[in-house]
Specification:
single chain; mainly beta; 15-stranded antiparallel beta sheet; 3-stranded mixed beta sheet; globular
């Protein structure tokens, strides 16, 4: 890819996945660089904490933002139940959009060490009336916290730090008549479980409950309720140091930790036309607490079995103290032509 066609910048590429699969009766073993996605909610998954995404990439499909990481995954199957263990010997973080910094601020990212201690386990049931899973992850946070150097120094050193976290999660999905019901929840234990450090995320509970239905064989509607609760909450305005207070505001806005309890919703409406050769969709997320929102419309036309043309974009709005308000300058549009073989 090339990030800017109007500038003389070299194009670059990345190998997203490359792994070896071994299947022996009831045991599956996968070794190599792989994308591991957890969760049954629609696109907003509290338990999806294992492999990174590039949030700066404006892509037609959100899965195109995902990047693989070296891992060993071992699964054992008994009927409809599987037990999966994962070892992640290498840490790769999310790529997130960052605001423009003042010339007096020097930003760098610190990789955690050692990285070979990351692991996860999941008990999954699929294929019955209710699909469900229980999971646990012990590793490093894909979204960074901030660490400040001496404010009196010039330039001021700001370090993106990925702290240790533990995540307990569960999800379920089932069908009730024409409706599909989904639920997913996770509790994340951060390294600041007692809420004493304003520059480190507090432990939190994240819940997603959703329902979807298809009307007239072509119209699909999916709506979800979002709840996020902080274990410990501290009013950032009580921080006396102005630079430290500003940094705490930024990390709280990026990580949705400005409020003790946050409510929100997501909506996705899709319709297929012309014998399903034309697909239109509009998805959105809104926070009822801060009233910031994201809109993501797109149109995909299948010229034939190999060629597809896509047009869409992202629109973010809200105050500067909100997640989508800070990302409003990242709004944009895209045109993609894709050939599959």
């Amino acid at each position: 890819r090339s990030d800017d066609l109007v500038r003389e910048q070299a194009s670059w590429g990345a190998l997203r996945e490359a792994y070896l699969d071994l299947r022996l009766d009831a045991v599956d073993l996968r070794i190599g660089k792989q994308i591991i996605v957890w969760g049954r909610a629609d696109r907003l998954n509290p338990t999806d904490t294992l492999t990174p995404r590039n949030f700066t990439l404006l892509a037609v499909e959100e899965d195109d933002q995902r990047v693989g990481t070296p891992a060993i995954k071992l699964s054992y199957f008994v009927g409809r139940v599987s037990l999966t263990g994962i070892w992640l010997p290498h840490f790769a973080p999310h790529t997130i959009p960052l605001p423009h910094l003042a010339p007096s601020v020097r930003l760098r990212e610190h990789s955690p060490s050692p990285t070979f201690a990351q692991w996860a386990v999941k008990l999954d049931h699929s294929g019955g009336i209710v699909d469900w899973s229980l999971s646990y992850f012990d590793g490093y946070d894909l979204i960074p916290d901030l660490r400040l150097g001496q404010v009196t120094a010039s330039p001021i050193a700001v370090t993106l730090t990925h702290n240790h976290i533990r995540v307990i999660g569960a999800d379920a999905a089932w069908t009730l008549g024409r409706f599909g019901l989904r639920g997913e929840a996770a509790y994340t234990f951060t390294s600041d479980h007692h809420g004493r450090d304003p520059l480190v995320k507090n432990s939190f509970f994240f819940l997603v409950l959703g329902v979807d239905r298809t009307f007239l064989d072509s119209l699909n509607v999916n709506v979800q309720y979002l709840l996020r609760v902080l274990a410990q909450f501290r009013d950032l305005e009580d921080i006396r140091d102005p630079f430290r207070r500003s940094a705490a505001r930024h990390i709280a806005a990026v990580t949705s930790q400005r409020d003790a309890v946050q409510h929100g919703a997501s909506l996705r409406i899709g319709y297929r036309w012309w014998q399903e050769t034309l697909e239109t969709e509009c998805a959105g997320i809104v926070s009822f607490t801060r009233l910031d929102f994201l809109l993501r419309p797109k149109v995909i036309y299948a010229v034939n079995d190999r060629w597809k043309v896509s047009l869409g974009g992202d629109v973010m709005r809200g105050s500067r103290r909100t997640v989508f308000g800070r990302l409003r300058t990242n709004a944009g549009a895209y045109l993609e032509i894709r050939y599959s073989f």
